Every structure is written in structure tokens, then in C-alpha cells.
């Protein structure tokens, strides 16, 4: 079993832990690194054979938002930025939940994202649209071996948990389980409620392939479009932007200029009119006692933002 998982993981490109890696990564892609993305996209073509049903589409939409929440709340705001605290067990549950998005493991994700904040839009940034163009910032950087390693120095706080290292080593395991469960769900519905018009493979194509691919591109817009489209409230040294549209698609991540100004807070929408559903969800988790010590936005940052918000965009770059 372990050997099989290692084989599948090697096809999808595991993230080796290295002691040092160049800050400026080579823009060289490797054909095998395209495999997981081609696999997921080609899988969507299965819709030609399986068709659709309301229940399959509803499951795909639900899984998009449920997993987007996990990516933003846990991979981003917790593992990358440590903006709240939780128990070790809940941390693992959060990691598994976010891992179901098929965006590699929590340690790799956090490692790459911390690198982005350290080098936002400078020549070492792995996915800057300013430096490398839209295509590279959106998906190209994910096919470069230099970006697929875990730099130990950047994530010592996460590497000390063997259960997280396991998820990173076998990051395909949870997505595979999700796909299998979806097949079982579709097959069960076909057997017990055939009037719904679904079946195992239809549920896999919609709930796993289509939902995961849309989720993947939704997440990638924050690396690409959130540095290109929208307004700039804060004079950050990068080109990050705030966008209501991207915030809706990503459950709050679209307030990216806010986030680059102060990444240490659990909030990305700094003001009441900046919709941040992930923050609302995290406040619920705080209310039921799952998480605690949520880092707020400092008053001085809020005042700074309100002082700058009325300036023309051309002055804020
Ligand atoms: Zn950014
Ligand atoms: Zn961040």
C-alpha cells in the first residue's frame, strides 16, 4: 500500500525537504510536473460521457466553497501566517480538510507562500505577474522543479509535526479518498434514488474533477489577478490589489492589498463593507471553542487605510 502511494506521489511530484534553495528560482518547467494539472483538466472532459444532474452540480458547487474555505482559512491564514491558534489535533483535521483541495500539502503550501510575502513582486518572487507575466504567475510556476521543494529554513514550525510531514509526503492520499467517496455516493444514489439521475462516475467528474479544477484556478487568481486587477488602498512595495469580485470567488482572499499591508491578521476584509466569509467562518470556530487568539487588525493600520482610501489610484503605486 505504502509503495503504491509512493509511486502515485512520485508521479504527481512529492515536495522534497531541502536545507537550501536559491531565493531566485529558475523559470524552467519539467514535463512531468504538468502531469497532475493535465490529469485534472482532462478528467473534466469526462462530462461528455457522464452528462450532468442537479445533484452532481450541487455537490460540485458545495465542494468548491467548502474546500476554498479550507484553503484560505487553514493553508493560508493558519499554516502560512499563524493568525490564530488551535490544538494539535484540530490543526491536523484542518490540514486534511485543506489537503482535499489537491493543492499539495500544508507545509509546501505555507513554504511557497511565505517566500511570496518575503519577495512580493521582486525578481525572486516565484509567481509575480509583474516579473514573469500572467501565465507564469497563474500556473507556470507550479511546473518548475525549483518551486516544488520545501525549504526547511522557512517552515521549521511546521516540519516538527510528523503528521503534517506525512500529509505532504502523500499529498495525493486525501484527494484520492475524496474521489473514492464521491464514487460511492453517486453509486449509492443511483441505486436508492435513481430519479436523481446520477451515478458514481458522474459524481466523480463533477464533485472531484470539475470542482477541483475550478477551485484550483480560483486559488491561482490570487497569485495572478490579485496583483493585476483592482484598487490599491495601501502603498505596499508590491502591486497587490483589492477586488470585490476576487473576494467573492475566494471567500475573502480578494482583499489582497490589505493582506500584503498586514499579513499577520486573521482578517483580509479590514472594514465592514469588505466581505470576508472566511473570517466569519473562523469567528464561528472561535465561538465553538475550536480556535482562539485570532489576531485582529491593529487600529493604526485601519486608520492608515482610511486616510489613504480616497487618493487617486495613480498616486498609490
Ligand atoms: Zn500576493
Ligand atoms: Zn499571505
Descriptive account of the structure:
This protein has 317 residues and is mainly alpha-helical. It has a domain at 31-231. It has helices at 2-12, 35-44, 47-50, 54-80, 88-99, 106-118, 129-138, 156-159, 162-169, 173-192, 200-223, 244-249, 256-261, 277-287, 299-308; strands at residues 17-18, 85-86, 150-151, 291-292. A two-stranded parallel ribbon has the order 1-3. The radius of gyration is 20 Å and the shape is globular. It binds zinc ion (2 copies). Residues 76, 80-81, 113, 117, 259, 263 line the site of one zinc ion (ZN).
Topology:
Layout: H1 2-12, E1 17-18, H2 35-44, H3 47-50, H4 54-80, E2 85-86, H5 88-99, H6 106-118, H7 129-138, E3 150-151, H8 156-159, H9 162-169, H10 173-192, H11 200-223, H12 244-249, H13 256-261, H14 277-287, E4 291-292, H15 299-308
Parallel strand pairs: 1-3
Antiparallel strand pairs: 2-4
The structure holds zinc ion (ZN) (2 copies).
By secondary-structure content and strand pairing, the structural class works out as mainly alpha
Can you give the helix content as a percent range? 55-70%
Counting H and I runs of at least 4 residues, what is the number of helices? 15
**Spans where pLDDT lies below 50 across 5 or more residues:** 312-317
Q: What is the 3D shape?
A: globular
How would you write the strand order of the largest sheet? 1-3
Mean pLDDT: 92
Measured between the Cα atoms of the first and last residue, the distance is: 53 Å
State the major sheet: 2 strands, parallel
List cofactors, ions and other ligands. Answer: zinc ion
* Computed Rg: 20 Å
% residues in beta strands: under 5%
- Note the run of SSEs as H and E: HEHHHEHHHEHHHHHHHEH
Q: Tally the beta strands.
A: 4
